[in-house]
């Protein structure tokens, strides 16, 4: 068996049925081994598309996502997707071809030191130096990407090793040295909880990584604790939970941010006090004792000190928090804040109001559907105005904030979940970053829906230029955009453009009820901003609200 | 504040790059370093300087697959101060 055949064989043995990639010189033996193999390959039109499709596959299922690229530029084009997966703890395996071993270090054609480039954007990475190591490295890589705190792992395989005869030895995973709960810390946490008057649960992406939605909901239902979510956590708290305050942070809801600022105990569940969440860190939840639950010990005290730290898998740690009931006085206050600061959709004017459109989409699309966002104003509106029943139904580039994520991520999600409704919600800036993947949708007849909220601007940058750069709109005007419906039509994707508020309801119906792929191009007010906004350097209770247009 | 660390690494050349990258990226300046190969592992003694608490570095180093163990040699002195 050649190294290339072994690579495909091992993927199949580990249950990998779908991979995304782009061939080239140094990975040709692996593509040859793919020919007729039981692993289905999806050709994207750029390696970044392959990387994000694999991320979308992984995030929409919790399974390993796999992508292939050739050496040199093929591998460098994967780097952004690896960085994105690193920031958002996504289980990803990237396999790259490398020039033959004898040519490494000679500045050969399409040679780049991919191992060196991978160091800052992978959980771990390998360059295979000996054919006899290949089987063990691949098996270890598959294991590492999914163990503990998940993350991307890269395996760089020189072409001669792909072509060499290689031995296969089953590799038995060493027992994971997952952290064990410290009973003293559990006792301290429960003591703090027993004295809490104004507790808040701050939910992060760790809930999905640990597959701990059930444990989370049991904890919340038991304690009635008000819950706020990070961008990545949206969907972890079920939509009908009475004290779900939605997203916190820079564009979080006012009630969510105020609750955190006023709380006396903050139970951080698989989150990492990201700067977009905390605003001014020294003023974030300043009166609160923090109980921090995370599988990664390096997150404890990294940004905010914890009074108690439960370092373990959330499935194990969450049930250790004793029965405790949130005081009624605090819940009454939370309810009044939720009522006072509820989102409003009664927007005056004839133009399409993006929050209303998204709220309608949320109500009309299947609750099992997947929404894949790009990055910018539309991404924040999705987070604010759509509801999700599981974090695998909301894919949004969180830590890295990568424009161009949405379309290829939706392709990965649709491949992974062929019977589910999958839509990418994008902006007119982001969609152009990986627009070539319309060809992948067409090639595979994927019924991916596309909603473009078009303000002919790089809207979020424009918003900041308006608010913080004296209205100097440097390089954010996109009024020369192509006609997106015509562009999609070239790829065989039907759709329509709307410009007025009274067209929204019928257009959302057409989108949701369309059989195959479909594009809804919604022209919105270029002066519409995302509110509220915690300005840079401010505390989360110093939110700006709509005052200027 | 300066801290002296001893680190044992798998004997793969990339392991050295990997832990040095983490130290730099997390805001710890390298002031001295000694590296020896013994018992099929790299043994590193290094001193780093930073205003940040040393656990912010050791907790990140401990996550590296190539790192077998990390010890802070002058931890007792720090606590005494």
From TrEMBL, chain A:
Enzyme's top EC category: transferase
Domain Thiamine pyrophosphate enzyme central: 189-321
Cofactor binding, per record: Binds 1 thiamine pyrophosphate per subunit.
Boundaries of every Thiamine pyrophosphate enzyme TPP-binding domain copy: 374-521
GO terms of molecular function: acetolactate synthase activity; flavin adenine dinucleotide binding; magnesium ion binding; thiamine pyrophosphate binding
Domain of life: Bacteria
Keyword Iron-sulfur: no
InterPro entries attached to this UniProt entry: Acetolactate_synth_lsu, AHAS_TPP, DHS-like_NAD/FAD-binding_dom, THDP-binding, Thiamin_PyroP_enz_cen_dom, Thiamin_PyroP_enz_TPP-bd_dom, TPP-bd_CS, TPP_enz
Reactions that this protein is recorded to catalyse: 2 pyruvate + H(+) = (2S)-2-acetolactate + CO2
Keywords: Amino-acid biosynthesis, Branched-chain amino acid biosynthesis, FAD, Flavoprotein, Magnesium, Metal-binding, Thiamine pyrophosphate, Transferase
Thiamine pyrophosphate enzyme N-terminal TPP-binding domain residues: 1-116
PROSITE patterns registered for this protein in UniProt: TPP_ENZYMES
Named cofactor requirement(s): thiamine diphosphate; Mg(2+)
Enzyme Commission identifier(s): 2.2.1.6
Pathway membership: Amino-acid biosynthesis; L-valine biosynthesis; L-valine from pyruvate: step 1/4; Amino-acid biosynthesis; L-isoleucine biosynthesis; L-isoleucine from 2-oxobutanoate: step 1/4
One GO cellular component, as annotated: acetolactate synthase complex
GO BP annotations, alphabetical order: isoleucine biosynthetic process; L-valine biosynthetic process
Family of this protein: Belongs to the TPP enzyme family.
Protein name: Acetolactate synthase
Automatic annotation (TrEMBL), chain B:
Pfam families per UniProt: ACT_5 (PF13710)
Organism taxonomic ancestry: Bacteria, Pseudomonadati, Pseudomonadota, Gammaproteobacteria, Alteromonadales
Gene Ontology molecular function terms on file: acetolactate synthase activity
Keywords on record: Transferase
NCBIfam families xref list: PRK11152.1
Name of the protein described by the UniProt record: Acetolactate synthase
Stored InterPro entries: ACT-like_dom_sf (IPR045865)
EC number: 2.2.1.6
């Amino acid at each position: 068996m050649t190294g290339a055949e072994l690579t495909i064989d091992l993927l199949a043995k580990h249950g990998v049925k779908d991979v995304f990639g782009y061939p080239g010189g140094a990975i040709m033996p692996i593509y040859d081994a793919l020919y007729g193999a039981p692993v289905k390959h999806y050709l994207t039109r750029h390696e970044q598309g392959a990387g994000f499709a694999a991320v979308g596959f992984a995030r929409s299922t919790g399974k390993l996502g796999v992508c292939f690229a050739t050496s040199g530029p093929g591998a460098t084009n994967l780097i952004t997707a690896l960085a994105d997966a690193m920031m958002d703890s996504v289980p990803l395996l990237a396999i790259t071809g490398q020039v033959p071993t004898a040519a490494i270090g000679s500045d050969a054609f399409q040679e780049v030191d991919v191992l060196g480039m991978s160091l800052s954007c992978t959980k771990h990475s390998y360059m295979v130096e000996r054919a006899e190591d290949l089987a063990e490295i691949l098996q270890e890589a598959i294991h590492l990407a999914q163990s503990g705190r998940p993350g991307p792992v890269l395996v760089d395989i020189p072409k001669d090793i792909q072509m060499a005869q290689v031995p296969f030895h089953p590799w038995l995973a060493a027992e994971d040295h997952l952290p064990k709960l410290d009973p003293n810390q559990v006792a301290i946490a429960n003591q703090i909880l027993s004295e809490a008057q104004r507790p808040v649960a701050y939910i992060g992406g760790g809930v999905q990584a640990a597959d701990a939605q059930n444990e989370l909901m049991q904890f919340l239902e038991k304690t009635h604790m008000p819950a706020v979510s990070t961008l990545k956590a949206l969907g972890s708290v079920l939509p009908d939970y009475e004290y779900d305050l939605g997203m916190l942070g820079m564009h979080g809801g006012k009630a969510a941010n105020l609750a955190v600022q006023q709380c006396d105990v903050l139970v951080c569940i698989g989150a990492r006090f990201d700067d977009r969440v905390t605003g001014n860190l020294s003023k974030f939840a300043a009166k609160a004792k923090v109980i921090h639950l995370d599988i990664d010990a390096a997150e404890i005290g990294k940004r905010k000190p914890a009074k108690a730290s439960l370092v373990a898998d959330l499935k194990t740690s969450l049930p250790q928090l004793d029965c405790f009931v949130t005081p009624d006085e605090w819940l009454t206050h939370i309810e009044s804040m939720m009522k006072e600061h509820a989102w409003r959709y009664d927007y005056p004017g004839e133009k399409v109001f993006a929050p209303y459109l998204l709220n309608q989409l949320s109500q009309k699309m299947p609750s099992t559907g997947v929404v894949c966002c790009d990055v910018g104003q539309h991404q924040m509106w999705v987070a604010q105005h759509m509801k999700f029943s599981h974090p695998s139904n909301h894919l949004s580039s969180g830590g890295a904030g990568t424009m161009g994520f949405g379309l290829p991520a939706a392709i990965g999600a649709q491949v992974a979940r062929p019977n589910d409704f999958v839509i990418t919600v994008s902006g007119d800036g982001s969609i152009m970053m990986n627009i070539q993947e319309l060809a992948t949708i067409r090639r595979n007849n994927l019924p991916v829906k596309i909603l473009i909220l078009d303000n002919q601007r790089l809207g979020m940058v424009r918003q900041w230029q308006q608010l913080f750069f004296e209205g100097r709109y440097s390089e954010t005007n996109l009024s020369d955009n192509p006609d997106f419906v015509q562009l999609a039509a070239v790829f065989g994707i039907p759709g329509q453009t709307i410009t007025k508020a009274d067209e929204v309801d019928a257009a959302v119906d057409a989108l949701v009820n369309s059989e195959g792929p479909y594009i809804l191009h919604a022209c919105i007010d270029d002066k519409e901003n995302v509110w509220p906004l915690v300005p840079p350097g401010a505390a989360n209770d110093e939110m700006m609200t709509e005052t200027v247009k | 504040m300066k801290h002296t660390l001893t680190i044992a690494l798998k004997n793969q050349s990339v392991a050295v790059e990997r832990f040095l990258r983490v130290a730099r990226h997390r805001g710890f300046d390298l002031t001295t370093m000694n590296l020896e190969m013994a018992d099929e592992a790299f043994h590193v003694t290094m001193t780093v300087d930073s205003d940040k608490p040393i656990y912010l570095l050791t907790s990140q180093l401990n996550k590296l697959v190539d790192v077998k163990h990390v010890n802070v040699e002058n931890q007792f002195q720090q606590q005494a101060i």
